[in-house]
Amino acid sequence: MTEPLDPPSSASPLALRPGGADRVELMQTFVRIVESGSLSAAAAQLGTTQPTVSRRLQMLERSLGLRLLQRSTHRMKLTEDGERCFARAKELVTSWEAFEADLRGTGAEPEGTLRVLVPHAFGQDMMIGPLADFLERYTGMKVHWFLQDREPDFIAEGIDCAIHVGELQDPSNVAILLTDVPRIVVASPDLLRGRPMPEHPSELTAFPWLALTTFYRTDITLTHRETHESERITFDPRMSTDNLFALRSAALRCLGVGVASAWVMAEDIAQGRLIQLVPKWRSTPLPMYLLYPYAKYYPARLRRFVEAMRIAIPTVIEEEQRKIR
After folding, report:
1. The CATH number of the domain where 76 resides is what?
2. Residues 93 and 173 in one domain
3. CB 95 within 8 A of CB 2
4. Burial of 113 (0-12, 13-18, 19+ CB in 10 A)
5. Tens of pLDDT along 149-168?
6. What's the sign of the alpha-carbon dihedral 260, 265, 269, 273?
7. Cα angle at 207 between 205 and 213, to 5 degrees?
């Protein structure tokens, strides 16, 4: 069981100091240094400077009368005392955050900053609407919105949560399934000029192909929506990319046939810039998850964000899907 923090007093070496850091802040900084691996990374995650982080570490070491870290030009290592201090500080910081949340009440408005990692294509377009609604509702919130097509290292990068499309790599995280992202086959009308419209996936091998290396490279399987018949197509892609918008641009420039998230292509199909090929056939939908690391306590800002995204994102995906039905 975690012991409560003593109230600040002038006799305590870690007491609150006018214009300085209090005991919780010193321990929070120490925990962030260890988890991020460096003073500079901790400073970036805390939104402060490296000299400030270094000064807080020195204050903590002086107050405890212990050397917590061994530092050299190229590496940083916990001392034996540092290892014991880190385990205890982690418990104390978590308990303090839970204590603050309890005092504020479960119905309190969330405040503070969330660091969220989202896929490039979704994060710079479709998800901005739900994000804006969230920030308009909770005026005390700020969000750092990072665009990356991968699962984060939550602790090392200081990420609070992530939206992830595709299969999961780390089973230790909490994963909430938001929706499935349907994928369709598209091409420019110019690519089909002078050729018959393909009616079966096997006919698509006659065209040049574009590969989205995050999900497929030299083959893909399509399934009929009604009969559930499956057809595997193999190809040597004319262009490969790991970016969904780059694949879309290549398809618009008539470079080849591609398979992509339906909502990304919906507007282009509606405007006639792209054509959906073999429309009764689709690739396996990709699961979209909201991820965050497991913990005994979750701050209100994260809980409210998770609640908002669980409602908003499936709705947005469904609205985009209607454009191509």
Report:
1. 1.10.10.10
2. no
3. yes
4. exposed
5. 999 999 888 899 999 999 99
6. negative
7. 80
